[in-house]
Amino acid sequence: MLKLIKKFFKAMNNDSNPSEIAGGAVLGVILGLTPFFALHNLLVIFLLFILKVNGAAAVVTTAIFGLIGYLIDPLSHMIGESILTAGFLEKFWTYLYNIPLIPFARLNNTVILGSLLISIILAPFLFILTRKFVVYYRASLREKVDKLRIMKILKASKIFKLYMRLSR
To answer: Is the pLDDT reported for residue 159 higher than 80?
Structure first.
């Protein structure tokens, strides 16, 4: 896990494409907000491998938004339940569930459906915000973060030096 965090900060500090970092972060948000053992997450993991996105950003945001996902489960349940019980969508759900493999997606689970919809709606906004943050961080915050007392302490510590030597 430490190697992934190191890769994430390395990507933030070097010339990695901000869109690659943002793309990885968005896929990580989808993985984090939705229950992990759902069929759609196989697609997200597949996309992580075939798209040129930052995997470390995906792992870091999956961990962060995994915690947030538990906090918004009641909201996800409400959204999922309202969509599943909407009368005008009944034929759509019936049609969908007659398609092979779709029942394995467990979209009849209110939390899975609600959290998937939340993450899909948030994805474009998070992509834009993350991309802008990476550009802003590199232009304005990187030097300030390096000058923080905690960073100086961490970089001066024997544990950090040992870790940096072993991780090369």
So the answer is: no
What does DSSP assign to residue 81? H
Q: What is the pTM of this model?
A: 0.82
15-49 burial: b if 16+ Cβ within 10 Å, else e: ebebebbbbbbbbbbbbbbbbeebebbeebeeebe
Give the residue extent of every domain in the chain.
2-141
Q: Quick one: tokens of 57?
A: 């950003």
Residue 53 is classified by DSSP as -
Give the amino acid at 106: R
Q: Which is nearest to 18 in space by CA: 125, 127, 124, 119?
A: 127
Tens of pLDDT, residues 117-158? 999 999 999 999 999 999 998 888 878 877 777 767 766 666
